[in-house]
Design a protein that fits this description.
5% of the residues lie in helices and 49% in strands. It is mostly beta strands and 183 residues long. The chain has 2 domains: 39 residues, no CATH class; 142 residues, Jelly Rolls (Sandwich). Strand 8 and strand 9 form a beta hairpin. The longest helix is centred in the first third of the chain and has 9 residues.
Amino acid sequence: MSNARNIAALSSVEVGATADQTKADIEGLGIAVGSSQMPAGSVVQVQTVNMSSTVVNTSTSWVDVGGSITFTPKFTNSLILIMLKVHVYVNSAANTVWNASNFKVLRDTTEVLGADTSNDYGSGGVFVSTTDRIMVMYSKDYNDSPNTTSAIVYKPQFMSRNGASISVNNYGSGSLTIMEIKG
């Protein structure tokens, strides 16, 4: 069996199992998941929160999307892959105005994804009628390097441009997934 398949098999073992259960013996490798013996690029742990509660924002202030993850990396040199998916509905708009939503993800209080309020809008359009609407599934990924093994909180937020009424997770649900990849 190739090393790539060995690594894939190792990364699929459930983290958080008992010590006996975390021992993966793939072709005699016997490497414990989450141990320093795991090869670089291995998936160490994954956490996901589903976000299905509707949140509406009609201001240019940031509000929580409705989910967060408290995550404790096992290694200081790990890469943290942040995957954000949010269902967005722009349901109220003024004529001939650019209306959009913007998203960011905080690591504790530090912005690690998005937040470029002038250029990084996740969904929107120019509306020619007050009855125009748009609905999309916004998705964005980001690699974070927190350089810590202490607990950190990842939390998505969103805002509205020009005061349009933006609903998230109204007609569909979103998710925030955090994946630790060994460095």
